[in-house]
Amino acid sequence: MGSSNYSQDAYSYFSRSTVGKSTADVFTQTKTNTIADTMTPKDITFRECRDSDNHPESLAVIIDLDVTGSMGKIPDIIVREKLDKIMSTLIDHGVKDAAVLFCANGDHEWRRGGADRFPFQVGQFESGADELVKCLTSTLLEGGGGGNDVESYCLAHLFAGKYTSIDCYEKRGKKGILFTIGDEGNHTTLSAASQKQIFGCAEAQDLTDKEMLAMAQRLYHVFHIHVNETQYHDDQSVIGYWKNLLGERVIIMEDYNMIAEIIASTVAVLNGVSIDAVTSSFDSITAGSVKTALAKIDLGVSNYTQKTGVVAL
Questions:
Q1: DSSP assigned state of 256
Q2: Which terminus of the chain has a smaller tally of CB atoms within 10 A, N or C?
């Protein structure tokens, strides 16, 4: 997957078509409250990110969206307005072979009101506008969660580490990039029974959050974007959990409208672009906010500063 080229015209045509439509009209699975066949994780072997003639040095990027009640606005704004900002920012700064996989998590564990019926959904690695839009709009915004202060971001870690095969790492030893996005903490364990139910794996064992993260980190640079706008604003138990798990790879996002710029800037900087160069096309407020958000983050490069960006990988 991911062999097609990105087209701004194709995305602009789609974006214009969403004007005046409700969220349910854009995310059509919401009307039936069922998961799309193309998005089920059950019985998958791998999601593959392969090199192709159009993208000879593919780069795997996973964006995991929280589709619980408080977070459904982010998938909506990405598909209507912000997808082009992600893809065009990368292409304009020399990251031309990125293939993005969108997945989505809810809450797999029972809580007050029950567990989400579809706690994990997963698309394919794609580079074309039509394919990326189709994946996003096929996502069910289940709108569950709540009641226990945690969600199942760990499912994205497990998926990335166990169920992806990516040429950037296998051929070139270059890690992909994984973002989870949400406003709550993470489940600290995942039972074997839950793994079998969600992924359909024949054999499994109980895993901790740290074990699942380690699986993902073998192949990916892993970040968490904490959406600091909900009831968990500046919640130190939530932020503290993520910093304990990920160290300085927790990005505090004060305005969800900047989600695309933060993602694109992080990917670009990891690929050798200076922070000043990548934010030069943003308005001054957005550029300042992105620089502030990333200045405190461990991007795995040496001599990174707001002024000079990446000096050496």
A1: G
A2: C
CA distances from 280 to 95, 148, 265 (A): 16, 41, 11
Strand, coil or helix: what is 275? helix
Would you say 206 and 192 are in contact if contact means Cβ atoms under 8 Å apart? Answer: yes
**Cα dihedral 248, 250, 254, 258 in deg (nearest 10):** 110
Query: Bridge partners of 312?
Result: 302
Candidate CATH numbers 3.40.50, 3.20.20, 3.30.2320, 1.10.150; the one for domain 8-243: 3.40.50
pTM listed for this prediction: 0.93
pLDDT digits (tens, 9 = 90+) for 220-248: 999 999 998 765 555 688 999 999 999 99
Q: What is the rounded distance in angstroms from the CA atom of residue 290 to the CA atom of residue 52?
A: 32
**Which pLDDT value is given to residue 309?**
38
From CA 274, how far away is CA 209, in angstroms rounded?
33
Domain ranges, ordered by start, for the chain: 8-243
**Residue count (the chain):** 313
Q: Quickly tell me which residue has 């003639």 as its tokens.
A: 53
Contact 180, 64 (CB under 8 A): yes
